[in-house]
Fold:
Amino acid sequence: MNHNVNVGLLSVGIYNFARNINVDGKKIHILTWSTTGQERFNLITSCYIKHFDGCFFIFDVTDIDSFKHLDNWIDLYKYNSQKKIMIILGNKADIKERVIKSEEAKNFAKERGLPYFETSSKTIQNINEDFETMVRMILISQNENYLKRSKSRFRLKYHNQKKVVKAGCCA
Structure:
């Protein structure tokens, strides 16, 4: 079974790329968009966000400003999307001269109920693991949503001792 997943990378122009990965024996096609975290792309970003199945919020551990803007990006995503699958990534974890310490970033994510991982684009540290985690979270969410919809749409009603199945929101 093949699955398609749209993931937003709100990090540092707008560009996209696609890749296939295997997660738990399933072939997953990921379409990734990056808005580079620049405010001048907010209007365009808002249009794309509503189609994301999940979102990475990436900040640079050597840049306090990128960290300070995380809440703005999280709020923008929450406002424009029904889907709430989010992961915070601290990039450039390979650099020793950090401005944002791991504990500070972990606490920030924990306060918002979000997972946090450190990564490095340069060394590819945790890149695959981050995508696999995102895909698993999305698949779990989609499965839960499917179960909620199917439970609410199909109910059994009894009329005169005969079982009648009605489908739809008004059953």
User: Anything to note?
Assistant: The two ends are 32 Å apart (CA to CA). The first strand starts at residue 2 and ends at 10.
